[in-house]
Amino acid sequence: MSTSQATRSNIIIMLNKDTTPFEASNLTELAAEAIRHGMTWTVFRPEHGVFLAEGNGYVLRRVPQASLVFEYIPDPRSRPMIPDSLYVRGTAVDKLFFGIIQGQRSLNLQEYRIGTITDVYNTMHLLDPTGIATKKIRDNRDPSFAPKCLFGFSDIIPLALPTLRETLCNSTVIRLPVPTEYATGLLTHKEGFVVFSHRLNEFIRSSQYTESPRLPVPPMVSQVQYMYRCMQQGYPEWEDEVLANSQINNRSPDFLYACESAWRGCTDYFHGLISEHGENFYRDLMAAHLKNAVNWWHQAWNRMREGTARDNYGLRDYIAEGMHLYWDYLELVVEEMRERGWTDVRGEILREAWVVMIFRGFCWWRSHWMMEGQEMCEAPARLPSQYYEEGQGTKNGEGEDDFVVVEKGKAGPGL
Question: CA 333 to CA 372: how far, in whole Å?
């Protein structure tokens, strides 16, 4: 029996390496590891000392009337986990289990909590103190259609997170826990990819760059066009959302490498802009995009009703219209950046940066996977964010908190 003691809150967890599939040194690690090994916390209330996780053929629960002892025992009611259920490992991934996004530090992004709708409102208000975008998110949550959808706001996931796959071991495991009620959006759907590509080509052919006196196309805009075509021609799963989602933890290593290489190139581009213009450049650009992106849902449906929707290229019309609207918002993003103080940055640089940011989001999504659709909303695996802090435990009023996992197969009282 191996024992490890956490450094905070006096939490002690004991684990038998021979009989449990994971180790943990505190409650945070125990909670995340249980989910990572195919279990769902059906009850997780540390403040009351009540815990129950089930799945992957086992039950992990607190032993009744036995202080804070956990037992890990077989459960014939659940089936063993399949490989597609495996999760990427790492601290940033553990935070996702608790509804927390660890923003990429090299882009000066902080930690964002989005696990509950209150967290979402608070985070959006942090990024847009005017409260306009927060109100729009609240208005969008139509109880008659999609009360849990976070239209536009969910872009924060691919725009803020670093790449998380374990590249050093060349792993193809790309599944991540869903950190909020509805994680997918225009940056994961085929409609978003296809319309973005067409609008990008139109942007480059626009009179701004073709009429006399001719202005040069910003270099990274041309580079994004080139990288997009390479991905489109080399990998059918790049645009094909259904194909990509059928390859959860078995996507081609070459495809993952190509996505991540393009993502890193875009990230390096932003490192250069931050070095030249200021450390908050990317943060403000992301915030300016999110402030406008939350508007696309109702505006797309209004255009559908009015008969003014643009070409959907044979795809789902309202989602395709959403990406058209993203391009319409580009000048509003530029205006928002001006209002945030970026008056010395040329407009073509701001437009170029937005194009690169959206493409970077596409690359992030295709090298990661999260559960989609209504199933994701109905069966979330995330836990309350306040319990992420390492070392937190249940105060039982009698001194130290002892968390123990007993040997697998040795049932405790009452089972």
Answer: 28
